[in-house]
């Protein structure tokens, strides 16, 4: 495939100052069309995402403290693995759909 995909990995959940709530960095997230919501315990803000880290913005996934401000190191790492698997599945499905459509077009011209 000639299409290039770009991956951006950036720490999105950072404390404003020691001892304060963790806040998602809004500047980058706003440009991507990602929504940020307050954590249910009111201890900070995190990106609204499903269990796999998929956000409402097409092609944007989050993991770690960006997805859950309460995540510890192990949970944050595990959510990264989950998001990576979801991204891989999404890209595989996209490639498969493209390949099937191309093959059907070829078969259609041979008939």
Keywords:
111 residues, alpha+beta, FAD/NAD(P)-binding domain, two-stranded antiparallel sheet, 2 helices, 41% helix
Short description:
41% of the residues lie in helices and 11% in strands. With 111 residues, the protein is α+β, with helices and mostly antiparallel strands. Strand 3 and strand 4 (45-47) form a beta hairpin.
Please provide a written account of the structure:
The protein has a single domain (13-110), classed as FAD/NAD(P)-binding domain (3-Layer(bba) Sandwich). Helices cover 41% and strands 11% of the residues. It has 2 helices and 4 strands; from the N terminus they run ββαββα. The chain has helices at 26-32, 73-110; strands at residues 13-15, 22-24, 36-38, 45-47. β3 (36-38) and β4 (45-47) form a beta hairpin. The model has no long low-confidence stretch (mean pLDDT 81).
Topology:
Layout: E1 13-15, E2 22-24, H1 26-32, E3 36-38, E4 45-47, H2 73-110
Antiparallel strand pairs: 1-2, 3-4
The fold-level CATH name is: FAD/NAD(P)-binding domain
Q: Bin the helical content.
A: 40-55%
Q: How much is the radius of gyration in Å? A: 18 Å
Supply the CATH superfamily name. Answer: FAD/NAD(P)-binding domain
CATH classification, class level: Alpha Beta
Q: What is the element string, with H for helices and E for strands? A: EEHEEH
Major sheet, described briefly?
2 strands, antiparallel
Count of all domains = 1
Strand order of the biggest β-sheet: 1-2
What is the annotated CATH architecture? 3-Layer(bba) Sandwich
Find the structural class using helix and strand composition. Answer: alpha+beta
Query: Beta-strand level of the residues, as a percent range?
Result: 5-15%
Oligomer: single chain
- Report the count of strand segments: 4
State the end-to-end CA separation.
26 Å
In DSSP terms (H or I, runs of 4 or more residues), the helix count works out at 2
> What's the shape?
elongated
- Residue ranges: pLDDT <50 for 5 or more in a row? none
Mean pLDDT: 81
